[in-house]
């Protein structure tokens, strides 16, 4: 008889002997490495604003914006606790600033978006230009630009921060610096970037002052909402998305940031959307109105009624459906620009 065919025992001995050499067999993990379809560890998540707000206000009593540098409660995906991640690639948090406070100037390679959730009159300063915040405004802090926040008006102001922190961490490409001064010097009047780039026009000696990032610091809600309203009146409603637009970089027509795509959509009253799934997991912020989101993955179904200022996550390749009896407006962001740059974006719309 020949020697016995390699057995489980033989394999186990091989694994043990090579382990100290930092060697491991691919055939034991191959299936998990290249799954037949995306299998994210991220789970659907939902934060009701009424539950979150009291903690934000308590944070306002527990620490100043300056002491905290950024007074933020991180929205952590329940399956990624401790990782400061809302999806595998993205970070989200709710930031509070109170009248008279300053969040000191710094810069980092991570890109940031702000979506204003509550209150008015705080400002963010980017590269010497201040922008006043209003609910529903979408504001950008491009990679490596100095930025500070302040509040010289009334009442608490809360916004959603979206950053590419987990992605930049994955690439080990993060740099950061603190500014010498707390609040950077204002060098340009408010609205300068919008005047240059926000009216379907651009400087004649065209430049891209922030590289791959949009030179518009703030996309005011009033304008974005007006566009959706007009389209709702005049064009067919998409059976999956209602009326949905993406924010663009006016110099390229592409995404506003290289790593994060941003969207605003309006579901008309009585909308009962069809299901879809896509590879880019997304974070939603409810601006106005109310509705329901149903998220399914395999046998698991999650269902949440939402209202203004609630936040939720639709993970990669989970099927989602949106509906709204009274109509609503939703802001959302995802890592779609990266999926598209890599040629791996996939979307399936169910009939
Ligand atoms: C940051 O700079 C801000 O500038 C907010 O408001 C959240 C989370 C991690 C790292 C930097 C801001 C942040 C952040």
From TrEMBL:
Keywords: Dioxygenase, Oxidoreductase
Keyword RNA-binding: no
InterPro entries found in the cross-reference section: Cupin_2, GDO-like, Gentisate_dOase, RmlC-like_jellyroll, RmlC_Cupin_sf
Signal peptide from the UniProt entry: none
UniProt EC number: 1.13.11.4
Protein name: Gentisate 1,2-dioxygenase
GO molecular function, one term: gentisate 1,2-dioxygenase activity
UniProt superkingdom: Bacteria
Annotated SUPFAM superfamilies: RmlC-like cupins (SSF51182)
Organism of derivation: Ramlibacter montanisoli
Domain Cupin type-2 intervals: 94-161
């Amino acid at each position: 008889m020949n020697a016995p065919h390699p057995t489980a025992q033989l394999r186990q001995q091989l694994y043990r002997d090579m382990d100290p050499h930092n060697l491991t067999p691919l055939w034991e993990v191959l299936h998990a490495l290249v799954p037949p379809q995306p299998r994210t560890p991220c789970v659907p998540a939902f934060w009701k604003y009424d539950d979150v707000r009291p903690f934000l206000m308590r944070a306002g009593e527990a620490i100043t914006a300056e002491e905290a540098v950024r007074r933020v409660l991180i929205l952590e995906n329940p399956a990624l606790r401790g990782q400061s991640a809302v999806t595998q690639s993205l970070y989200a948090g709710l930031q509070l600033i109170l009248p008279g406070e300053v969040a000191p100037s710094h810069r980092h390679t991570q890109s940031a978006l702000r979506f204003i959730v509550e209150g008015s009159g705080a400002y963010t300063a980017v590269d010497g230009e201040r922008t006043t915040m209003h609910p529903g405004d979408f504001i950008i802090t491009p990679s490596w630009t100095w930025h500070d926040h302040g509040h010289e008006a009334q009442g608490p102001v809360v916004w959603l921060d979206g950053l590419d922190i987990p992605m930049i961490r994955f690439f080990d490409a993060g740099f950061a610096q603190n500014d010498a001064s707390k609040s950077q010097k204002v060098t340009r009047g408010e609205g300068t970037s919008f005047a240059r780039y926000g009216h379907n026009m651009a400087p004649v000696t065209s430049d891209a002052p922030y590289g791959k990032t949009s030179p518009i610091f703030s996309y005011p809600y009033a304008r974005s909402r007006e566009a959706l309203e007009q389209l709702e009146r005049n064009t067919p409603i998409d059976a999956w998305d209602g009326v949905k637009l993406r924010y663009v970089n006016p110099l390229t027509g592409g995404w506003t940031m290289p790593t994060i795509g941003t969207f605003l959509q309006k579901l008309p009253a009585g909308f009962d959307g069809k299901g879809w799934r896509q590879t880019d997991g997304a974070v939603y912020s409810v601006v106005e109105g109310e509705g329901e989101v149903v998220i399914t993955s395999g046998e698991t179904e999650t269902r949440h009624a939402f209202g203004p200022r609630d936040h939720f996550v639709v993970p990669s390749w989970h099927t989602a459906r949106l509906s709204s009896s009274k109509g609503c407006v939703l802001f959302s962001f995802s890592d779609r620009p990266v999926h598209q740059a890599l040629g791996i974006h996939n979307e399936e719309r169910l009939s």
